[in-house]
Amino acid sequence: MKERKVLFLIFLEFLRQLFRNLLNLIFLMTKMSFGSVAMIFVDLIVMIAPTSGYLDTVRIMITNKSPAAFNYNTCLILLSAHGLKILYYIYHPYAIRIFGQSITQFSVAMVMAFLKYRYSRSGPDSIQRRQSTSSIHDEIVIHRPKNKFAYFLSITSTVTFGEFMTSFFLYALAILSLFYLSYFTINETATVDAIGLIANLIESTVSVPTFIKIVCYRDINNVSNVLILQFVFGDMMKLALFILSGTPWSFIAGALLQLTLDIILFVTYLQLLFCSGISSPNDQETLIRRSSFSAGIEQNNENNEMGALKGVQEPIEDESEEIREVNRRENL
């Protein structure tokens, strides 16, 4: 009871501070000119716009109550790239609106990961899998290695959101340790610049998982239309924003590389959506599963019919044997 009371008091204090900050913000905005307020809203739109495609992916996951739209590689790229950008901002501040983009994309990646594990355990597909196996817990225990540290090193093998966060913090701790070791022993400027370069190189590959799915595997199932549009037009606007904001050259180079991939991705997506009649791999697998299921039902029906006919024939044969026995006795 005491712990709950303490947590409740902490939560009330948090709400009080939040309400106080909101009042201060409203008070400051009333003293600003219309142009200043408009620029604040423009900055907010610039910060939130790069997350529109991922927010639509979140919508798809919630609507379908399924993790099918989730992509591990995309989520990990967002977390690593923007996590490093946040670290880079601490030691090399850049435009606040660009920093806001990193915060929003890092946050939406966490939301996608949470929904993935939530619907993996409670969605219709998960329930069906549990019904088809004797015990999902036994299966997890069998495949989970005895060494927990080795288990958490494979972040994609985690089965709960808590385990995912544990693995994430282990990697974050390792990266921070290497960063500070290099920062204090080798060279401060070179270390910080290296973090910025690595972050932007990683971010430039954020569309690669979707690129492989669409361009290589010709599959557009569970892909957000908004995400595809965001990749192309968002990268164009981001490149212009980087140039106008005077961001470091590593940011601009990463944006150029990302835009090149996304143009190829966009053209292929339009081709598959409007010009191609070839079914995607997922559609073919679904058709095969449905055909197999229908064939199984038909086979079961045939077996039942044969069994029923056999059951009808057996009494007839028994009855004819009884008649022959009666006739034999009469002849005697």
TrEMBL record:
GO BP term, example: phospholipid translocation
Transmembrane segments: 26-49, 70-90, 149-182, 227-245, 251-274
Keywords: Membrane, Transmembrane, Transmembrane helix
A GO term from the CC aspect: trans-Golgi network
Protein name, UniProt field: PQ loop repeat family protein
